[in-house]
Amino acid sequence: MAVEIEIFGDEIICPIDFNNKIRNILGICCLFLPLKLKDNFAKNLLDRRCLNPNYKKWHPYFENCPKKHICKESWHNSNNCEIHNQDIRSSRASNSLKTISKDWIKFFIEQNKINQTIKFNMLFIELDKMDISKFGTSKIHENIYNRFFRTTIHYGVKSFFNNSKILVKNVYHDKGSMEKHKYFPYLNLHKLSDEIQRQIQFENKEIIFVDSDHKKYSSSKDINLYKASNIIQFVDLLLGLTSQCLFYLSDDPLKKEHASLIYPLVDRLIKKPRNYNSSWYYVNKQNISFFPKSKGEDFKAKFFDLDGNLIIDDLTKEFHKNKKLEMPFYGSKQQSLLQFF
Ligand SMILES: [Zn+2]
Which residues crowd ion ligand 1, with CB under 5 Å? Predict the structure, then answer.
């Protein structure tokens, strides 16, 4: 029997950091959720939207809020906000956004600690090292994205599921530039499926684009997209905060505080990716890597353009984890000791 899974993908583009230093990083994150765990994962995210400490249960509409007698419409609506990494800033984040996003990350980390690790693969592509200006059209980003999105999925299914046969029911992706790409929505999974058909099958080869505003899917017939949208918001948060730890993109105290929640995990995934004894249970479940290893002139020789697509020859030896976390840990000394030991 094949393991049935669903995949949730998002991207981040970081042209510059807060010092206006050019970074040109493209990050891709895919979450791999076994179908039998998906509803429970979505429920955990949703119930954390209810900020009543004694009663964490969520309903999209205030009228149906299980704690309507002690809830208030304005509170309920404010907790129904989109969880978006970009809005995690001291100056603009609402109390709801601050609290819910923090609870989401804490829940995610707790899953690691009890060996119920949520599987993800993250890849950061340092575009400057690839000297892509030489390839000069606006489609470059999309073509690179196509290629590496497939790589990110392929690595995940190959490494995270013990060689089991995999049936990918659906692949969801945040709505964005890729939805309009002529190739990404319809052909990318077909191509991947041809490349690796021995181990994985795709039931639906069309990528499902989900709006990250879950309120658009509040009617009961859209319940699956409602859940997917919340999961996509989580992927955005995970990718955004990990990027913050790695590249120190923002100096905002709230961003640093939130990123520090995930800092110990990011640190381990990079420094000790094969530590089977870790109490964080991440080996063969979570992965962060970087691309490429070599730089500029050497590297570009490996590209060639075919029918508008960039093909990169022999990718594997260009992935690496040789990276220091650029953001210093943010929090009290005691906190950092607690987190690290
Ligand atoms: Zn309520």
Answer: 65, 71, 76
